[in-house]
Design goal:
375 residues; mainly beta; four-stranded antiparallel β-sheet; 0% helix; 33% strand; disordered N terminus
Length: 375
Amino acid sequence: MKIRLTSCLALSTLCVTTTARADGWRYTSEVPGLGDISVDPLTIGGRIARNRRYATGTDFAVGKVATVGGAQTSYLGNNVPLAGDFDGDGHDDIAVRWMSGPHEGKWTWSRNDGTGNFLPGKAMRFGGALLAYRGDNTAFVGDFNGDGFDDIGVHWEGGPHVGKWTISTNDKSGNFGAGKTVTIGGKTTAYIGDNEPVVGDFDGDGFDDVGVRNHGGNVDGMWWISRNDQQGNFEPGFAAHFGGSQRAYRGANQLLVEDFNGDGFDDVAVKWTGSGHTGKWTVSINDTHGKWRLAPGRAMTFAGTTPAETAYVGNNLPIAGDFNGDGFADVGVHWTGGHATGKWVFSKNSRRDKVVSTRRVSVHVPVLSSTSRGR
């Protein structure tokens, strides 16, 4: 967002109050004396100019089967599903990374058509090559340079690159540059051990951060996050807290990081696959805006299921993303076994329909003085 002023004669203060429309936003046309204004927080001393949106619960609609290239089954085989806005249109797309078989090392994406379905698959290229990042690593997706197009990276967990983090920047045409090793805390290796990468915009600055969730040993269940320095690298890690605890979500579950409450700060969720919680989904909302603290976990509920806290039990892999472009992350699964093998099913986030209040935000907007009249 860029500052754009069409009428103002002095230094003004825009106060966005709890008086808001049903979608949770107060429009600038409703503020006396101000014209068409959008605010980039980086241009005003880092003060975040965002009208926060809150709702009564984290609920999701009945699952809907999406087609890919017109087919209800797609991407059969050993692959890992990914979600990201690879074309920068505000609607997350789906992709797969092929892990074995004739397509091993290839990456394929299907563009979101804006109606809840996806276009036929298209091969992704990395530095011009169709094969990329083969080896012992875990893939992740995020917008690391803040240009609105999601990039792809890997965290190396073994082999000669162990401990390195490599990122390929989106070239805005559906392909990616050659991998570049980034530094974390000034070092080219970081977070070595039994862990999995955690990626999201935890401080709301528009640049995704990286970190890990640890498994096993004396750090089991601990989370560390490294802030994006907006220069292509990352700062030293900080411990994340969940409801005051440094340990969270130990057990058999699958990790999802997205903005589930639409406030511009990514949250953490898990889909349980065991540990006595099979089929349940739990979310921790980012409640302190960049201070690496998240709320205690609470159940996600799904319409059309009994109980409402249980959904998508079986052989599938979960994904999360804003698939309908409303600013609230949805969830879905890619079925890998059973009668639904190859299907993609998505549950829309219904929070937008339940927005009840917003938070007051004051933004000081510098403007140019003018003495001209009659124009």
